[in-house]
Amino acid sequence: MKKHLLPFLLFFISLNVNAETDLVLKDPTNYLHYRIDLKSKVLSKEQRTGDWENLGKLQFVNIDLRDFKILTNQTFNERGNILISIEGTGQLFRVDLKRLTFSRIDSTYFRGHNFSSIKFIRKDTLFSLGGSGFWHVNNIETYYSYKLHEWELVHVPATEGPHQILKQFGGYDHIRDVVSVIESPPFYYKSVKDFTYDYFEKNLDTNEWKLLGEINAELLFKLGLKSLESEFLYGMYIFNSGPFVIIGNPVTNKIYSINKNITLISHLNELSERKGSLYSYYAENEFNKLPIKSDSISFKTLKSMGVLKGDFYLPKKMEMNWILLGGYILAAALLIYIFTNRKKQETNTIHLEGLPENSVDFLRRFLECERGHEFDSNQITEFMGYSTYSFETQRQLRSKLIKTTNSYFSIHYKMTDIIERKTAKDDKRFSVYSISEEHYDKLKDMLAT
């Protein structure tokens, strides 16, 4: 829990300090770095010797130096330029290396909810999954829209996928084009060894999550790991909290232990991958000099050093008596359905693919009021179960769920705009929502329990 609290402490402490002098950026194409002197506006590039080459003075565009009180960042290669994401915010900046400009490109306001999110670029689009903030880990999936200059929802948070996503427990496998996630423990969980670590993969072509099993945590802890936090590189989990480096390979579903000291894999080193190799970087500040210690090893060689220890993930545990009980319950439910619920066949189809799970409960609460009753945005958000999210996230989730629900009923039942959005009569700045009077009775019959 202390590791999770550290980003928040840094965030709040930083609100009362001045912006740092230098913004150091990882070169997204190799293991070296760029550096921006925020006072002189000079851009420098790190050399393998440890020296810095002056590339010239940057033109600052839409830059507020107060945004750089938190200097933890992640960088991405954007067609030869550097895209910068500031940790714990939705803020995005771009360094144009040819034109020598440094500019903010987003219009995000809210911050503090996405520390340690999984970020990656796929098909020229930057995605962000999960993250933590205010003692809560989420599973919100967004992408950055260059057109709107904002982060947009990929879809309503999936119920079939992990509920808690952090980059310490997963990442993007660009080779297989999937996202791998070990569901992380919540903040309040006391014993990391007792937690059930479910393993999920998301197919980005179909945009679907799949639960593959439970991580073999018992074996991993027996091998000496103190935590399942890791580095996710080249489609593999590299665990380094024990006496030896442990590799979890989701592709082969195997755990390997490297029973020798590998100095290039250390908590003090910055690890990255490039063209099938693992790169390790360490810089030591000594009298304004930065001697570099770097090393590399191919992932093929690294895997060959491992000793097979067991399966990486296991089928979900379930006692046989529970399986039998489940079968009896399913058979009984089927008989009840056949003999007593034939008239509700149309109603049951609302649970088919395409309609979010929470949409049904949301509509039923909506229909508890009389025809024509109007609700404000706060009431609608509470009905949807999104009231604990930030204001900006509430707005996106609310819009997404209403749009998805209206589209579903329009396609499957020819019921157009069952949820209507209108301008409030008493204050034109706000909106109110109601169930269409045309579809009110039919919808109420369909959702009758």
Low-confidence stretches: 1-19, 343-352
What's the story with the biggest beta sheet?
5 strands, mixed
CA-to-CA gap between the ends?
Answer: 43 Å
Q: What percentage of the residues does DSSP assign to strands (E)? A: 25-35%
Q: What multimeric state do the chains show?
A: single chain
- Helicity, as a percent range: 10-25%
Order of strands across the biggest sheet? 5-9-8-7-6
Radius of gyration computed on alpha carbons: 26 Å
Helix-strand category: alpha+beta
Shape: flat
Please report the number of helical segments: 9
What do the pLDDT scores average to?
83
Number of extended strands: 29
Note down, in words, how this protein is organized.
It is a single chain. The protein is an alpha+beta fold and 449 residues long. The chain is 22% helix and 33% strand. It contains 9 helices and 29 strands.
Nutshell version of this structure?
This protein has 449 residues and is α+β, with helices and mostly antiparallel strands. 22% of the residues lie in helices and 33% in strands. Strands 5-9-8-7-6 form a five-stranded mixed sheet, with no helix packed on it. Strands 14-15-16-17-26 form a five-stranded antiparallel sheet, with no helix packed on it.
Using brief descriptors, characterize the structure shown:
29 strands; disordered N terminus; alpha+beta; 449 residues; five-stranded mixed β-sheet; five-stranded antiparallel β-sheet; single chain; 9 helices; flat
